Amino acid sequence: MTFDQKLKLYTLGNIEKLPQYNILTDEMKEGLRVVGNILPFRVNNYVTEELIDWDNVETDPIFRLTFMDKLMLSSEQYNKMNAALNHEHSSPADIKTIANEIRAELNPHPAGQLSANVPTMDNEPVPGLQHKYRETALIFPSQGQQCHSYCTFCFRWPQFIGDATLKFATDQAKTFVKYLREHKEITDVLITGGDPMMMNSRTLGLYIEPLLAEGMEHIQNIRIGSKSLSYWPSKFVNDADAENILALFKKVVDSGKHLAFMAHLNHWKEITTDTAHQAIANIRSTGAVIRTQSPIIKHINDDAEVWSKMWKEQVRLGMIPYYMFVERDTGPSHYFGLSLERALDIYQTAIRNVSGLARTVRGPSMSAHPGKVCIEGICEINGEKAFILNMLQSRDPELVKAPFFAKFDDKAEWLGDLEPAFNTKFPFES
Ligand SMILES: *Cc1c(COP(=O)(O)O)cnc(C)c1O
Ligand code: SF4
């Protein structure tokens, strides 16, 4: 049955109105309130009604994806915020100060998110644009810097906590258009966020239409990064604006460019509803191609069977599995992170269980400062154990697909934890 309820948003301010709220224990409610004052919390009625299994909340992956858990903070951080919230003389300003102190401890800008990769034009930074890899530029539309629900593990969480100094978005004049026009090496534009599918068709069109205009022939592929298939598939099915959105997608395809819908999907449960199936079919019928990507995250999808089932289901529904990412070292990374060894094991086990059509997915990959570093395997040469690594993307295109080695370390969770093996250097270290 198609989900046809009106959108209802739940935040800390009205969470008591959620019909299932009293299923939560007091400890869970407290955890949500304490952590939700530091990291962004928002969930909508599609997620709560269609996706979360309230009979098994403690272990439900979609509940974990959207609701905070006490253990996402260190006990010191947790107690500090909890004390502030319970102190009768705390003002909202006091709580905000403490929240900001704790946020600063959570590595809010991994891999230099705010400043790195921002190109300049006439000696000025181009607002809301990132250009890291030669062929691909990212646009962060100012109206798309929020999501239909927030993921607890999101690495872009500082975008959503209302602090303007942490935000990254396009300017009103859309300076990015001029930059794209001048940079003929760019073939791909990725519209990202937040979730660009928070925008209505008219606003999204303001970002897409200029890419179809004269002088933009070098832009061959328009990508939209979105989690709307999981969080609000009605966007493409029965929202008042759904037909206009699909018409805009079709317009891109009819103009002779490729529209790549980059769906963020963490678990097969997200693509089990009738509304999600219909949304996928409707997007595909415009001629757009849906590719999928997800980080691997403890408590949500650290299980090879979840991945192989998800990839099989994606292929059956006509989507192309694209990337498996290693969760970035930001936010509650101690809670969600897992070792590179374990991530590789899950990838290999899962990919051995699918047919070639799903083996298009690459990973586990770390989006780090030098580029996307993929863990290809573990080897042992002359008694020394090592990770085999590969750059899937690099600032220096000459380094793409040139394998290299790091000393094996069963605790390593990120590139920064690794050292070169066999007396070599990492290729991106000159
Ligand atoms: C992943 C990524 C891209 C796109 O890389 P592809 O391998 O072409 O998908 C572009 N820019 C940034 C900053 C990225 O992280
Ligand atoms: S949908 Fe994407 S940007 Fe939005 S909270 Fe989730 S991971 Fe972050």
UniProtKB/TrEMBL annotation:
Q: Which UniProt keywords apply?
A: 4Fe-4S, Iron, Iron-sulfur, Metal-binding, Pyridoxal phosphate, S-adenosyl-L-methionine
- Molecular function GO labels: 4 iron, 4 sulfur cluster binding; catalytic activity; metal ion binding
Gene3D superfamilies cross-referenced by the UniProt entry: Aldolase class I
The record's annotation in SUPFAM superfamilies points to: Radical SAM enzymes (SSF102114)
Which cofactor names does the annotation list? pyridoxal 5'-phosphate; [4Fe-4S] cluster
Protein family according to the UniProt entry: Belongs to the radical SAM superfamily. KamA family.
Name this protein carries in UniProt:
Lysine 2,3-aminomutase
